[in-house]
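User: Show me a protein chain along with its predicted structure.
Assistant: Here is one chain, sequence first, then structure tokens.
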Amino acid sequence: MPSAHVRLAAALAIALATACGGGGSSPPPPPQALELACSVASSGPNPVLTVVGRARSAATAGAPITVTLNVAPAPVTFTLSAPGWIGSAEFRGTATLQGGQVSGTATVDGAPASASCTTYSGLPTLTAHVARTATGADLSWSAVAGATVYRWSLRDGPGGALVASGSTAGTTATATATLDPLKNYVAEVGGYALTGTETSLPTPLPVPQATFGRVLFTAGNTGGDGTTAWQLFGPSDFVGGTLTVGFPSLAAGERLAVLLVNAAGDDGSVATVTTVGTGTPDLAPLAPWSPLAAMAAGSSAAAVDEGPSRAGARGGDGGPARQRLHAVLHVRPRVVPALGVAVEEH
């Protein structure tokens, strides 16, 4: 009996071990051949889709792998490169919104592969500033939590040709370029959570969050150069709520026009334009008007106050004028030997 008892116990132990083998947990699924992560930054003038991808390829070298993203209005592509088969890109003008899904396809090791990602939100808002210099421009911007690198660019107007660009981990940059004083250049700064130079990334892929700030070149808070036609002054050029511009050496037959634009819409504030110097008496205040509508119609006649005058325009939602008001000054033919203009918010 003792020996029979021992054999029974051993058989029971073997049976239990066979039934419980592997601990009851399923093995992890194999990694996907294609992985994607993406975000949408809506902090700039247009939403920007940023995406990072990785392919699980057996090859250690070779031609880049092309990934096609299915977005509206048309598909876009970017590439993944060895040795880590990682790549990233950003796209503007797509219809992708935060919280949406983006799907992609590629060919990995000769076989079709697909993946999708949820578009998470971008990094916090970035505010950029630019100042024209004798050799180009000085750029600065606010530090953004989560950003590891900033890329900046200087373009010949919105969507225009690239004039200068660079990247840095700091919050300032200097652009060296020969700038045309008659052109309105645009500076843009992007803050990125990923540097874009990674050769390896953790699993799952980190979200490639980003943020963008854009700013127009303006003539500065010193009142511009007093000679260039169509000088643009922005919110940062107002000092104590007032922008003062002088034209000390107007030629015979020149006149001054002032155009005020609330780029973000009506804000319930009143702006007055006061001119001093040789010229006609003050004109009656101009009637309220829509500056953006006038510009869209291709006419600035309603926005032009020619000669010494005072003009006011009132909006409707009570926002801070100094954050939105832009003044555009233009010299036109009229006999005015010397003239100064002050734009003041109330």
